[in-house]
Protein 1
Amino acid sequence: MSVGPVDERSLDWNDARERFRRHFRSSFPRWGADEHEELASKAVVRLLRALRSRPALHLHGLISKIAGDEESDAIRGWRRRTARNVALDDRVEPPTPEPAIECEAEDPLTRQRWLLLTYFERRDARCLDVARRLLAGETLRAIAECEGRSHDALRQQWHRCVVALRGAIAPGDPLWDWIHERE
């Protein structure tokens, strides 16, 4: 890319598009090439609009800024689409209550483990795998490394799981104390 002010006529558009693609591939490695290309196209349009308003003195900085803005918009859009797809339709009838399940174990620790796994099995499947692995003696750090996730992300997910479970269990219950120890 050239040195000095850059306008839309002097810009190497293929190079700019490739820079955007590289940025989005590194930011969203699990997304497909089509999604990366779509984001790069949107970013190129933003770059064109910015260069039409005034020439860029620092093109690399402008490309980084636009890529970051487009990345933020993509994440916001993904969250909105996900929330829209999860929303319940008004015409759907409410689910029937689940039948009660009894645990026949006498050992309090076995009963607590059973209760924890049953709760997550019925209410929050995202937490079930983490709960099983924690009960098997693994640490959050080891689980995160195995899944290729950051420790902080998994810790925050587990915290949300525990908060949901706490809301369902009354203080003073033996499981309440056990949950506070595991967090």
Protein 2
Amino acid sequence: MRNKIENWKRIFLSRIAELWEDSNDEPGYGAVVDTRINIKMNTPIVGRIYHVVDKTTGEVIKVGSTVCALNTRWYKYDKKKYSNHFLSLTREIKSSDADRYEPNKSDCPFLWHLVAAEHLEMLGANTYRISRLSNQQSPLDQKFVGFDGVDFASTAGRIGGSIRSRAKMKSCAMQGNRNIESGLLLSICAEGGKVQGRRAASSGQIQAIGLTQGRKNASVPGRMTGLGQLAMHNRWHVKRNMISTTCKLCKEK
């Protein structure tokens, strides 16, 4: 795997060198050499200002910028949020000798030019915090956290939140099992039942239930007599472990 990566790296660097040699005679492009990989960094670059457009209404809902092709930039968008939208190219800005592209520097003139143009386009299109899909941050502020940093931070936040959620669910499940095995859950339920029982007795709820059930039993012929016999059987025979020859319930067992 490492050999494949090294081969692709050599091919990529050689291609960059060829492109530089082809465009080296053109005015307006200075050469900045990065000694770590020994290639000229200030190759001609094109920045693009684009609109995110609603397919149904044709309304511009967001403005963005990129140094990639639009189809590459669209690949990074959340398709669930932007399921009915597309990117439309509005403006292209090319790097020059006075507008150098130095991506490894925080004060790269070209990238600041690009985000400044994006900011003006955003104000002109009125897409700043109009809806949840609109621009939520000024491109100039966004530049401080890296090019396209807000989108990457949002994605990282969703991934981190999902990981923490799964970890918390697993922790809760393990704690639940420990509570069951230790008898803590049973003791909590028993204590809760005692407290609720006292509340029901003091509020008259038990008496009301008893009256209601008593009226239901009385409305059924023979039920009260049967319940009385069952209560007497349990008290005098079952609890005392005795059998009576005159008790119908004892004979049934």
Protein 3
Amino acid sequence: MKVRSLSQILTAVLVIALCNAPAWGDTIHLGEAQLAGMLESEGRLFEVSGRLGEEEGAPELELLNGSGFLQASALFQWRCNHEERFSLIYENGLLEFRIGQLVLAFEPGSGPDELYLACHAELEGSGVTLNDLELNGSRLGDSCWTVGPDSGDVLWISGPDLSSRFELSGTVNLAWIGEAPGPEDLSFVLGGTRGGTSAVSDWGRLKRRF
């Protein structure tokens, strides 16, 4: 019953936001296993993840060493069921990630061909929503969201000339019932790939929510 209540809240938010939203760019939805398969063939450039931080202490961003790609993690003291604005901007070789008042900038080496958003909710009564998504100032007309237990969603994005410059923005909402989940139990990821086969060509337009 609790899971249905949380699902209804997230669904209502999405319906309002997506209603009459013009579509821009190509988006498809993949499962988490499909994403892992795609990333084996794609050249992964960077990955930014947002997770619940420690209960005490200030929010922080940390830059981690990925396996052949740049990886950043935002450890944040999230407020349950509260939207935070985020943006991911690539220009002149510099990638800038903003969430709330936090800013992290680094050089991925080159711009991506395609982007992906992923979210995961491990526990019952928890959920993640990436919503109000815009790419280069135009609404995508799609979203990435999931409700636990052990559930995830992946949104793959293709657009014109992402490799030279792009700006991806939106809101992210982490929600749970009861005690706050651990950092690995409720999270989202923004990533970029370059090279390999296009996911849109490979998988077709598996699912579009407009």
